[in-house]
Amino acid sequence: MPDTSYPKLHFIWGGIFTDASFSTLEPGAEESYGPYHDEKTADRVWNEKARRNIDIANHRLFVISVPRPGGAKVG
Fold first, then answer.
1. Which of 54, 22, 21, 49 is closest to 34 using CA atoms?
2. Burial of 64: CB neighbours in 10 Å, binned 0-12, 13-18, 19+
3. Which Gene3D superfamilies does this UniProt record tie to the protein (predicted)?
4. Global pTM?
5. What gap in Å lies between CA 16 and CA 67, rounded to an integer?
6. Exposed, middle or buried, 70 (CB in 10 Å: 0-12/13-18/19+)?
7. Which residues pair with 63 in a beta bridge?
8. CA–CA separation, 70 vs 63, rounded Å?
9. Alpha-carbon span 12 to 14, nearest angstrom
10. CA gap 20, 22 in Å, rounded
């Protein structure tokens, strides 16, 4: 039986982008973390990782939430 206590998984994705449009990552500058089972944990890790590179203007990380495979149908 699928675990329905956490209907979504949360990932952190991003890195250093080529410009301020934040649409293209620099080759080799990609970052990804996760999955995390709750948004609170993902937000905490996002905050920790983003603060480490706060002085790099084109560095951005995003929290991405996706339906859990085999989990309850979300929204």
1. 49
2. middle
3. Uncharacterised protein PF13773, DUF4170
4. 0.79
5. 27
6. exposed
7. 12
8. 21
9. 7
10. 5
HEC string of the chain?
CCCCCCCEEEEEEEEEECCCCCCCEEEEEEEEEEEECCHHHHHHHHHHHHHHCCCCCCEEEEEEEEECCCCCCCC
Cα→Cα distances 38→1, 28, 63, Å = 20, 28, 11
Provide Rg for the chain, Cα atoms. Answer: 14
Report the b/e string of 18-43 with b at 16+ CB within 10 A. eeeeeeebeeeeeeebbbbeeeeebe
